Amino acid sequence: MKELFQHSALTDGVTVRVAVNFLPEQSRIEAGKWFWVYHIRIENDSDQPVQLLTRHWRITDGQGHVSLVDGDGVVGEQPLIAPGASHDYVSGCPLSTPQGSMEGYYAFRRADGTRFEAAIPYFPLAAPATAG
Length: 132
Fold this sequence. Notes:
Layout: E1 7-11, E2 14-22, E3 34-44, E4 50-61, E5 66-72, E6 80-81, E7 86-95, E8 99-110, E9 115-126
Antiparallel strand pairs: 1-2, 2-3, 3-7, 4-5, 4-6, 4-8, 8-9
């Protein structure tokens, strides 16, 4: 099944695409735990390689509480992405509310040593309504 990327952002020749899905089998709604998985594709449409150095996430839950998450690379990697190439990874996000959102940026270094931040597009986290 082909993944449908629902959100994208372009910064300095780097496109970040996001597909997000609610995972009821990983959630424990009766315990106030909802879980989403997101698939990120980073496409390098610039004319030189870029290396992903760090990530910065702003995660907001349905009550407006914000968590900031910073770290090296993505899922333990700092991929070097050649011109015309892409890097994909999958990760997850738990929340204590049935809706929220994520957004942020990746810090990159180009082959010439210059650094820039590529936007991670805002995307909502929304569990489907449950019949009550």
